Every structure is written in C-alpha cells, then in structure tokens.
Amino acid sequence: MKKSSISLKLIIMNFLQFGIWGAYLTSMGSFLAGAGLGSQIWLFFATQGFVSIFMPALAGIVADKWIPAQKVLSLCHGLAALFMLGAGWYAAQAGANLEFGVFYALYALSIAFYMPTIAISNSVAYNALEVNGKDPVKDFPPIRVFGTVGFICSMLFVNFMRNGQGIQFQHSYEQFLTSGILGIVLAAYALTMPNCPCKPKEAGTQSFAEATGLIAFKLFKQKKFAIFFIFSMLLGAALQVTNGYANTFISSFAENPAYANTWGANNANALISLSQISETLCILLIPWAMKKFRIKGVMLIAMFAWVFRFGFFGLGNPGSGVWLFILSCIVYGVAFDFFNISGSLYVNENTDKGIRSSAQGLFMLMTNGLGASIGTWAAGRVVNHFVYNAAAPSWPTAWYIFAAYSLVVAVAFMILFKDPSKQKA
C-alpha cells in the first residue's frame, strides 16, 4: 500500500473516531439539565470512567491475543452505535417522560463499547504506519489532527442544526442519533484497515498473565512506569470536567438578563469548539515538544495548562469577559494533547510489541478509567454543592477548586517523576 494512501485511510478513520464522540460529549450535559437530570450529569460522565477501568484493557487483550485489532475496532463501534441509536430513539419517544433508568442503561452500554476504541484505534494506526515504514512519533500527530477536526465538525453540526421544534441539536436527543449514525459508518470502514496480526502463540506452557495479556501490568514493577501511570490517573481526573459542565455553565448565562443576548451564551458548543481548534494546532507541536522537553516536561506543561483552563473559566463570562473563555479554550489544546497524545506515544515507544495494545489499554484504564471516574464523581459533588444544591449558585468557586487541584498534582509530579535517561526521538 502506498504511504500516502495509508495516511489518507488513517485520517478518515480518526475523523470518524472522534466525530462520534464530539456529537454528544460536550453537549450531553445541556440535554440532561433540560431533562431534569442536571444533578446527575456527573454520573453519565463518570460512567465513561467506570467502563474504562476494564473495557479498554479487555479489548486490548483480545486484540493482542485472539482477534486482529481492526476487527475488534469494527465490532466495538458497531455495538456502541446500536446502543447509542437506541438511547436517541428512546429519548425521542419518551419526550418529557424520559426515565433515567432506561436512558442511562442504553447510554452506559454504548460507551462501554466505545471507550476501548480510543486505544484500539491508536494501535491500528501505529501498526499501519510501522508496516509502511513510517515513524509513529513523527507521522501520527499530523494524522491525529483530523480526529480533532472530526470532533469539531460534529460539535458545530449539533450546535447549529435545529429540529422540527426549532431546538438546537446540542440541547436535544438528535445529538445521540448523530453519534450513532457516524458509529455505523466507522464500524464498516474499520474493516478496510491493514491487518494487525495478533501476537504469535509461543511454544511451551504460558502463564495465565501471558495468555491473557495481563502481563502488561508488569510495567508497574518499573518505577518510571508506576509513577507515570499514577500521575496519569491523577491528571485523568481533570479530563471530563469541562466536557461535563462547560456547555451547561456557559448556557446558564442565558438566564441572566445581562448576558441573555450574547452570542456565547446561546452558542456554547460553538464557543467551546475553540478548544478543539487549539487542539489541532497543538498536536503538531508534539514531535518537537517530545524531543525538546521529553515526557516529564511535556506532562508538566499539560498539568499547568489545566490550571489555567479551569481558572479562566472561573474568571470569565460570555460578555465583557468572553476573552477569558477564549484563553481557556486556547490552553485546552496544550492541556489535552500534551497529556493524552504524548502519553500514548510514550507508552508505545517504551513497551514491547507483544503487549502494546494491552499497555495502551492500561494507559486508558488509568486516565479515562480510574482517573476520570474518581475525578468526575468528585467534580459532581463540588458542582452539586456550589451550584445545583446551593441557595446562591457559584460556578466560579467550583472552577477555582478544580484549578487548585491541578496545581497540586503538577507540583507533586515535578518533584517525584524522574525522566528516563534515554528516549527515542
């Protein structure tokens, strides 16, 4: 296969991969608040973390040992799409009588199969690049940019599209139908990816850990990986906070007469999409940053960027303070990419080929699993206390608490993590 051809195939795959997520991730909170489930927003986002504790690792084991990764990717996307379409269909039929239990169950099943695809799609991409003579560290980031482009396109689509009642998709069930349709497309497209052969069976008797891929957990025996994964979990706690509450927070300004007619208060998803635009640019900086600052420097930059991300939200408003929202969106690109993409590349570069899919699943477990679930649960308690259950709601207080947490994690990481003496450029 021509090198240019494989790059185009991976670009399309990444565009769809994150377009699926972008259709609802930043706007679901607004839908839930409108359906009377505002105090349970945290649970929906924490569930992404709950399922990421085990599903990415299990899918990675399957891809390493039994079924080629591109087929696992297709199967997971197909099932996730069907359940997401079911959630959207149920919300459409239920209307104002939407029941938490039914909708939550369909949503939870969908993301249980979607979350593993983030790590598996990385493995598929890295394999495709390597077999075509390319360097993942150098060549993957420009391809991954188009995943963010897909995310942005979906965000803008649900922001500006309106249903028959004139309601924006970002506030209605259509966002879930949009996601499900894209998922069906990618389930079929994933089967066209280059084959990712499973690890050959070794002669002799294998241990249970070797046979199942749980051997990836041996990475915790290495001090550098143990500390890296622990801090990945701690920083992962910040990943879903703005996804869960940013749209709801910004849209809430429409209830204030002073901001009711501002563009930002009425187009929260479009404003938030500046974060993803920043992300597309920051991805391109990763090869240079990894070479110049190595993993410790890159991770520290990401951690301090999270401090500013939350702090600017606390200080801003969609009127005269909209520039602070814009600054928050700009630093998000650094906060997200320098952590997620660089961390994934670091794991790929420092693990054996036979356990790479499992190792990527382990990274996902620590960040989008344990970290995101604990962090979103804690964020929910903070927001419910200072906003939904407060006599005088105070969103800024919640954002400042999140900023302070990120600062503590950054300082601790700076002290405890020692950069490996050697790292591939």
Which secondary structure elements does this structure contain, and how are they paired or packed?
Elements: H1 3-22, H2 28-34, H3 41-52, H4 55-65, H5 69-94, H6 100-131, H7 136-160, H8 174-189, H9 208-212, H10 223-236, H11 241-251, H12 263-266, H13 268-283, H14 286-315, H15 322-349, H16 356-388, H17 395-416
Helix pairs in contact: 1-6, 1-7, 1-8, 2-11, 3-6, 3-11, 3-16, 4-5, 4-6, 4-16, 5-6, 5-8, 6-16, 7-13, 10-16, 10-17, 13-15, 14-15, 14-17, 15-16, 16-17
Question: Can you describe this structure?
Answer:
The chain has 425 residues and is an all-alpha fold. The protein has one domain (3-198, 211-416): MFS general substrate transporter like domains (Growth Hormone, Chain: A, Up-down Bundle). It has helices spanning 3-22, 28-34, 41-52, 55-65, 69-94, 100-131, 136-160, 174-189, 208-212, 223-236, 241-251, 263-266, 268-283, 286-315, 322-349, 356-388, 395-416. Helix 4 (55-65) packs parallel to helix 6, helix 5 (69-94) runs antiparallel to helix 6 (100-131) and helix 5 (69-94) packs antiparallel against helix 8 (174-189). The longest helix has 33 residues, at 356-388. The chain is globular, with a radius of gyration of 21 Å. It starts with a helix and ends in a 9-residue tail after the last helix. The model has no long low-confidence stretch (mean pLDDT 86).
